[in-house]
Amino acid sequence: MNLIHSCLKRLVGTSVSVLRTRFAHWTKPLTSSLPLGSLADLTRSKAELMAENALLRQQLIILKRQVKRPACTKTDHILLVLLARAVRAWKQTLFLVQPETLLRWHRELFHLFWKRRSKTDAHKPGVAVETIALIREMATKNRLWRAERIRGELLKLGIHVCKRTIQKYMRHVRPPSAGGQRWATFLHNHAAQIWACDFLQVTDLFFRPLFAFFVIELKSRRVIHRGVTRSPTDSWVAQQLREATSYGQAPKYLIRDNDCKFGPCFARVSQYSTIPLFVYKFRPI
């Protein structure tokens, strides 16, 4: 009896879904039949109708300028892009510009947003000549000191220089050692047993950040696992690693940076996986 009830319920749900799809297709916007178009408006929300009216009104304002080819200003571009976001059938509503043109305006707005955001407020002064000479002298007289140790000694003198800058000036007075296995050689020899995980930040239409987490195999460049969230936390990242290493599928080495999102929960999951993970931590620059 329960089986028959579930079958009838599934059949009714499928029929309702098909009827809803057909009805939306018959009564889509800009149809040649005015009664069907008015009937379709009854099924739409008030907010969507107001957004569509605003989109049409903005295009009429441009047309009222009475020129042979209406010119759209930067403000028009921004308004049309934002209003099209609130209209579900924005492609059928547009009649002044092509949908491809609207998408191109959005890409230009996206580039402009990140150009202004990545622009530095003021030009940072370069490293003083005396500081460069001091870095080279320390690297020459102390062969066992690395960039982090030299940075600490400079901090004692009240000189603030980042680690990457110290490495750049150490390279001229201390050539790299020829002995031992290089990092590139290690990656080449063990690429099939190495995974790497990291975050990629993307932005949606309203420039809100989205964080895409991915795990990739170095040898084949195959994406093992991926996930997207707006607020990445230690427990969320640990759950992503748990899903990526399910069914005993785990690498021998896992590369990650020293981000705070890879916290204690992530460390426990990597430690108690089916195959032990040797996690290489890299300090973000």
Summarize the SSE layout with pairings:
Elements: H1 2-26, H2 34-41, H3 46-63, H4 74-86, H5 90-93, H6 99-117, H7 129-141, H8 147-156, H9 163-170, H10 183-189, E1 194-203, E2 209-217, E3 223-229, H11 234-244, E4 253-257, H12 264-271, E5 278-282
Helix pairs in contact: 3-4, 4-6, 8-9, 11-12
Q: Classify the helix fraction into a percent range.
A: 40-55%
Q: What structural category arises from helix and sheet content?
A: alpha/beta
Beta fraction = 5-15%
Secondary-structure element sequence? HHHHHHHHHHEEEHEHE
The separation of the N and C termini measures: 65 Å
Largest sheet: number of strands, sense, barrel closure: 5 strands, mixed
Q: Number of helix segments? A: 12
- How much is the average pLDDT? 79
- Strand elements, count: 5
Rounded radius of gyration (Å)? 29 Å
CATH superfamily (homologous) name of the largest domain: Ribonuclease H-like superfamily/Ribonuclease H
Spatial ordering of strands, largest sheet: 3-2-1-4-5
CATH topology term of the largest domain: Nucleotidyltransferase, domain 5
In the CATH classification, which architecture of the largest domain applies? 2-Layer Sandwich
Number of domains: 3
Any idea what the shape is? flat
CATH class of the largest domain reads: Alpha Beta
